[in-house]
Specification:
Two copies of one chain form a homodimer. The first copy, chain A, contains 14 helices and 23 strands. Chain A is α+β, with helices and mostly antiparallel strands. The first copy, chain A, has a seven-stranded mixed β-sheet with strand order 3-7-8-14-11-10-9. In chain A, strand 15 (292-296), helix 9 (301-320) and strand 16 form a beta-alpha-beta unit.
Chain lengths: 480, 480
C-alpha cells in the first residue's frame, strides 16, 4: 500500500487529521460539492444500515411505528413555540421561491420535525383512545453550520431518526423518555462498544422547547465529550400552542404530554474516534458490514486452486452461520497490500489460508484490535471465530471503558478543575444550580455541564466556582 | 361502522373521491399542513417498507450499494446539463438564505440527484478498475406541483429510490437499464399484482438529459395510464459536462456511460386504484403489512376464554410460518365493526373463531378479494392459509390483467382512435415518428404516447393522424 493510500499521521499526534484521513481513506464518507455537507459512501452507509436496523427493530418491539413528514415547514409553524423558533432560526435554510414564484410564507428546510408533525397530531388526536401515539421518522435534517464542520460529527445535513410520541400523562412521557434512552444506551454500549454516561441536561443546554432533556455522553480519545443521543420530555410546551388535546376517561379535555428523541450518523463518527488506531478504522464486530475478510495466500499457480477451494469452503461455512464474510479474490494485489487495506477499513477479523494451512488442517486468524495471530484447527473454525469476535467486541468496550474511567476525575477546587481540563476528560464536581455561574465557567474554561446524573448524591459542600451551596453534582467537559 | 368512517362513494361512480377517501380513511396518508405535500402514515409507511425491502434486496443481489447525497444542490451544478436544467427549473424549490445570510449561489432542494452525484463521481472514477459504479440512494425529492395534486400519485415531495450507475461502454449501460426495468417489473407484477406494459418513451417524453428512457406503464380503472417506474440510459450526456472519465485498458481516456432509474411511493397509489373496491382497500398478500387478521367471536363471558385461547394458538402457528398476523382483541368494538374496518384497510384474509368453530375443530376464513367464506379443518389452517393467499395474489393479478387486455385496443383510424379514447385504455396504433405530429395528437385528444414497444412489428401502413409512413408502433393513452 503506497503512503498516500494509508493513514499518514498518528492518532496520538494529530487526532483531527488522523480522523479526517480515516473517514475518506476507509471509504466511509467524502466531502460533497457543497460546503459543510458530506456524501455518505457505501461503506459508511452499510454501517448506518446496521445502526438503523437495530433502532428500528427495538422501537417497533416497543410499539412504535414509522411515518414520513414533509421536508419543508412553513415559517408560521416554526413560530408557534417561541423558544423553539429562536433556537433554530439562525441555522435554518429558507426556501423563498418555487420555480420563479416567490412564496408568501417562507418554508424552512426541515431542521427537526416537531412543528410540522404536531400540526398533524392536533387533528389526529381526539380521545384517550388515540393515546399513546408512538411515531418515528427516518429522514435527514438540515442546520446551516457556521462553526468548523467535521464529517459525521458536525455537518449541515445529517441522517437520523426522530421519535415523536404523545401521552396522556407526564408520568407516561417520563417513562417513554427513559425507555428510549435505554435503547440508545444498548445501541451505543452493546453494538458500538462505546461506554456512555447518562443524565439530564441543564436548562441552558436542554432542547429548545423541552421541559427537560436526557442525554448520553461519551468521551473521545482527545479528551473531549461527545453528545451521542438525546431524549426529551417536551411537557405540554408544544401541545398547548398546537392544540394537541384529548378527551380523557373523565370526559374532560386535557392537553397531552409529549416526547421527542433522536440519534444520528454522528454515532459512526464516535466509533471511528474511539476505536480507530494508527492503521485505520477498527469496527466492533456487531456493526461491521464485513466481519471477516478471507485472503488467499499462494505463491505458485499450482497452489492457487486448492487455496481457493479451501477458502470458498471455509467462508461459505462461516456465511451459513450468519457471519458477514468477504473473500478478497483480487488478483492484481499482493496479500500484504490487502492486509493493509482491510486493516484500514477496520474489518474485525482476517482469515489467511495458504498451502501450509491446508497441509496442517488449520486456518490463520488475525484480530484487528490486538493483531494477535491465531492458528486454529480447521474443524473448529466456526466455533472459534464466534468466540474471537465476541471477545473482540468485549475488549473494545472494556478498553474504551477503562479510558473513560481513567479520564473521569473529581475535584472540589476550581484551580484543580482548570488544570484537569487541560488533560481532557470529564470532571465530576458540584454546581450551585445557577445558569449565570454555569455560563461563567464555560467562558473561563471552555467546559460546560455535559450532564447531571439521574441519581442524586452528596459530594462536596460548595459549588466548584462560586462557593455557594451546591444544588447538583455535575459532569463538566470540553466538548465537540 | 358509522357512515363517515366507511367509504361513502362507489368506485365506479366517483373514482377520484373514492380514491381520496380510501387514502385517508384506511390510514395510508394524510394531507400535510403544507399545500401539495402529504404525510405518509404508519400503515402506508409499512407498505412502503415492503416495497423498499424488495428493491433493496434485489438490487444489492445485483451488486448495487446504497449511499446518501446532500438534499441541497448548488444552482451551478444543475446548470451544467442544459436540457436537465431547463426541464427541472420551473418546479425547483430554491433556498436563498441560511439563517439571515443570503447565499451567493442559490441552492435547489433536491429535485433529483444526477448533478450533485456526478460532481462526486467525476472525482471518484479514474480507471476502468473503478467501473462499473453501481449506487442507489433512498431519499425524497421535491418538485413544486402546480397541477392538481393527488396523494401518492402527484405530490410536491415523494419518497423514492434513485439509482445512478456508471459503465465503461454503451452496451453495459444498455444492459443495466434493462436489468433494472426487469426488477421493477417483478416488483409491480409479482408483488403488487399490477400488470404493466414495457417499452421506451419518445424523445418528447424521455427524461430530461437522457439518451433514452424505458418505462413501465399500468392502466388505472378509470382508463388512464400511470407511469410506474422509469430506467434511463443517460449516454454520455452528463459524463461530458461533469468530466466523468476513465483510463481504459487501452490506456486512453474515455467518457463513461451512465444510467439512472427510479421508483417511488406512487406504486402504493397504483395498488389502491387497481385493487380497491367499494368497501375500501384490497392489498395483495405479498405487500400487505397485515396479511391475516384474526377476530374472536363470542357472545357470553364463558365463551370468551376458550375463544381467545384458540385464537392465540392459531395466530401463533401462522406467525411461526412467517405470515403477518394481527389479533384484533379490542373489547369496545363488535365483530361486525371490526370486519368493516379491516375490509376498509384491505387485509387479505380474515380468520373468525367462535365457539362453534372450536366445537367443530375448524376455522372460518374470509377472503378480501372475493368475500368467499371458507370453513377449513383446524389442523390444515397453515397449509390452507398459504394456498388461499397465493390464490388471492394470483387472482388480483389476473383480474387486473384481464382489465388491461380488455382496455387495450388497436385501430388505424384517427376517428376511431378518438372514440376509443372516450372509454379510456391504451390504443395501439402507428405513428410517423414526428414530434410535431405527436404533440398535435396530444393537443387534439389529450392522449400521448405512453411507450414504444421494444420489439418492432409491422402493424398498419400509415400514421394514425398524418397518414405518413409509420416509423413506430405506439401505445397511446390519456394519463395521470
Amino acid at each position: 500500500m503506497s503512503k498516500d493510500i494509508g493513514i499518514t499521521v498518528k492518532k496520538a499526534e494529530n487526532f483531527s487529521e488522523w480522523y479526517t484521513q480515516i473517514v475518506t481513506k476507509a471509504g466511509l464518507a467524502d466531502y460533497a460539492g457543497i460546503k459543510g455537507f458530506m456524501v455518505l459512501m457505501p461503506y459508511g452507509y452499510s454501517i448506518w444500515e446496521r445502526i438503523r436496523e437495530f433502532i428500528d427493530r427495538r422501537i417497533k418491539k416497543e410499539g412504535h411505528k414509522n411515518a414520513y413528514f414533509p421536508a419543508l415547514i412553513p415559517e408560521s409553524f416554526l413560530r408557534k413555540e417561541a423558544e423553539h423558533f429562536s433556537g433554530f432560526v439562525p441555522e435554518v435554510f429558507w426556501v423563498t421561491h418555487a420555480g420563479d414564484e416567490p412564496l408568501s410564507d417562507r418554508l424552512a428546510v426541515r431542521p427537526t420535525s416537531e412543528t410540522i408533525a404536531y400540526d398533524s397530531y392536533s387533528r389526529w388526536i381526539k380521545s384517550w383512545r388515540d393515546l399513546p401515539l408512538l411515531l418515528n421518522f427516518w429522514n435527514s435534517v438540515l442546520r446551516a453550520e457556521i462553526k468548523m464542520t467535521k464529517p459525521f460529527i458536525r455537518t449541515s445535513e445529517y441522517l437520523w431518526q426522530e421519535g415523536h410520541t404523545v401521552h396522556a400523562t407526564k408520568e407516561e412521557a417520563d417513562r417513554e423518555v427513559m425507555l428510549i434512552l435505554g435503547i440508545y444506551r444498548e445501541l451505543m454500549e452493546d453494538m458500538l462498544a462505546i461506554p456512555v454516561l447518562a443524565g439530564r441536561k441543564t436548562d441552558r443546554d436542554k432542547f429548545v422547547g423541552a421541559l427537560y432533556t436526557t442525554t448520553l455522553e461519551a468521551l473521545m480519545p482527545d479528551g473531549k465529550a461527545l453528545q451521542m443521543g438525546t431524549s426529551h420530555n417536551l411537557g405540554q410546551n408544544f401541545s398547548i400552542p398546537f392544540g394537541i388535546k384529548y378527551v380523557g376517561k373523565d370526559e374532560n379535555e386535557h392537553y397531552a404530554w409529549q416526547t421527542s428523541w433522536g440519534a444520528s450518523w454522528r454515532l459512526i463518527g464516535a466509533a471511528i474516534m474511539v476505536h480507530g488506531d494508527d492503521k485505520g478504522l477498527v469496527l466492533p464486530p456487531k456493526v461491521a458490514p464485513i466481519q471477516i475478510v478471507a485472503i488467499p495466500i499462494y505463491y505458485t499457480e499450482d497452489e492457487r486452486k486448492p487455496v481457493y477451494e479451501e477458502i470458498e469452503e471455509v467462508s461459505s461455512l462461516l456465511g451459513q452461520e450468519g457471519f458477514a464474510v468477504h473473500v478478497d479474490d483480487r488478483e492484481q494485489y499482493t496479500p500484504g497490500w490487502k492486509f493493509n487495506e482491510w486493516e484500514m477499513k477496520g474489518v474485525p477479523l482476517r482469515i489467511e489460508i495458504g498451502p501450509r494451512d491446508i497441509e496442517k488442517k488449520q486456518v490463520t486468524l488475525v484480530r484487528r484490535d490486538t493483531f494477535d495471530r491465531i492458528q486454529i484447527a480447521r474443524e473448529r473454525v466456526v466455533e472459534e471465530t464466534g468466540k474471537i469476535l465476541d471477545e473482540m467486541q468485549r475488549n473494545l468496550f472494556q478498553r474504551a471503558k477503562g479510558f473513560l474511567e481513567a479520564k473521569t476525575n473529581t475535584t472540589a477546587s476550581y484551580d484543580e478543575f482548570k488544570r484537569m481540563l487541560e488533560d481532557g476528560g470529564f470532571i465530576k464536581t458540584c454546581w450551585c444550580g445557577d445558569t449565570g455561574c454555569e455560563a461563567q465557567i464555560k467562558d473561563e474554561t471552555g467546559a460546560d455541564i455535559r450532564l447531571i446524573p439521574f441519581e442524586r448524591e452528596k459530594l462536596f459542600s460548595k459549588c466548584v466556582r462560586c462557593g455557594k451551596e451546591p444544588q447538583e453534582v455535575a459532569y463538566f467537559a470540553r466538548a465537540y
